[in-house]
Structure formats: C-alpha cells, structure tokens
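Forwarding the complex inputs:
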Amino acid sequence: MFSCIEHFVGLVGSILSIATFFLALRFRAKVMHLRETDDFHKNRDSIVSQVKGFQSSISKDDLKDETIRNTMYIFFLNLYSRYKNLGFSTLCLIKQITKDLDHSDPDWNKVLRKLVKLIPLLEREI
Amino acid sequence: MNISKTQQFIERLSSDTLKGAIEWERSTPYAGIDPDSPSGKVAIFFSNEYRKVNYYDSFIGRLPSSAFVYLVDATTLSGRDGTMIHGLEFYIEDSIDHPHQLYVDQALLYQLRNSVNSYMAKKEAPLEGLINDYLNS
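Prediction (whole assembly, two chains):
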C-alpha cells in the first residue's frame, strides 16, 4: 500500500518538476522578448536613420564600394541576431539583404529596392 | 538656420568627401580631453558618465575655406530613466574655437559618415598594405 502511495507521490512530483521547468523556460522566453522589444524601441530611430543613410549613400552618392558593403553586412547581421522578435517579413527581408551583401560584388539595385521596402516595415514594428 | 540649406550643405559635404575634396581625420587625439580646458573643443568632445564619445568613429573635416566641421558619434545616457540614446552630432566651427552645433536629420549624418568611412578606408589603405606585407612575410 505504502509502496503504491510512494510511487504516486513520486510521479506527481516528477510531473510537477517537469511542468515547473517548462514554465521557467516560457517565463525566460517572455522576459527576453520584453527586453528585446524595449531595446528595439529605444534604438528604432537610430536604426531607421542608419538604413536611410545607407539608402541615400547608394542612390544619391553612388557609393558601392567594399567599405560600405562590409559596414552594411555587419549592421544587418547584428540587427538579425539581436532582434529575433521583429515581424516575420521584417526578419526575412533583413536576412535577404544580409545574404545579398555576402558577395564581393552584390547587386546594388536589388539591395536598394529591399532597403526601400525595409524602412516602413521597421517604422511599423510595435 | 534654413533647414533645406543645411541639408544641401551636408549632401554636398558627402559628395565632396567621396571626390576627396575634403580632408578628414579621426578624432582620437581628443580622447581624454581635459573638461576644464578653455578650448572650444571641450563642448564637442567631452565625455563623462552621461555622455560617451566614440573617438575612433568621430571625425574632423577641413573645408576648402579652412573652416572645420566635426562629425561626432556619441551615446548619451538619460539621468532620469537610464535611457541610452546613440546618434551622430554635427558641429561647424566658423572661427577658431567657436563651434556651433547644427541640428540635422540623423539619416543625412549617417549618409555623410558612410562617405567619410569610405574616404578613411582609402586614406588608411597604404597602412593596411604595410600590415598585410608584414603578416605575409
């Protein structure tokens, strides 16, 4: 009889431990999400300005050299890994731009078109 | 000051920088500038617990008229709620040690910085070549 109760208590304890573990994971994910959102809100203006700056450099100054390619590549790579909570289409576009820039001679017109699309998406992010 | 004229000025600076018509230097010599110094540069380059200047990514440009312009990368910490604001500041010095801050759209300043970065990469290329030669020897 005792053995049966012990097994039952042990089972309930295990289930409670596993449930607590998953709850803690969910809580951690929620906290991370809130921190990322807060961080993005504080930096949004600066991020949008940098993207607009890249757009103007390519379209108005015809700046398409290795320096700007490297700067943009690092900028978008950071943006992608830092703000995982951005909208799906925003993240997809950032990933595509990073991929486009990961060539020694990228298609700048393609990059420019994607930058133009990205600016309103970033401005609309909650 | 007329905003469109300021905008035109920055755009022209950006294109002239790419043509090599304006000489730029990094602001690293001003790192650790004495805040009590009477120099007008203190207002541009001072750093304290509320303001951090990234001297390596801040630049000093000399216009053909011999006036100086300053593009400063600074992070400001709000003492009220701890918010950190990162951005670029632009100053123009009309006479010795008399700088004025021009409030310009940040996107324009980032455009100018992209041009300055490209200029600096070309300027520092021989040095990079020397380092590469040494590393490959």
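The mean pLDDT of chain A is 92.
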